[in-house]
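The data are passed on as follows:
___
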Amino acid sequence: MNMLKRFVKDESGATAIEYGLIAALIAVVCIGAMTTLGTNLKAKFNIIATSIGAATTT
């Protein structure tokens, strides 16, 4: 019976789940930010490459 009471009061599993959810949320936000940043960088590099290509042909 004493073991059952300790098991009910033990919240370490809930804490681990909460930390896991926080880590997953941070990962999703990072992936979204990096994807957006990558798309923007690709566009900028394409503009630069086009400008350099136009400058070398004239």
About this structure: The chain is about 95% helix and 0% strand. The mean pLDDT is 89. Residues 1-56 form one domain.
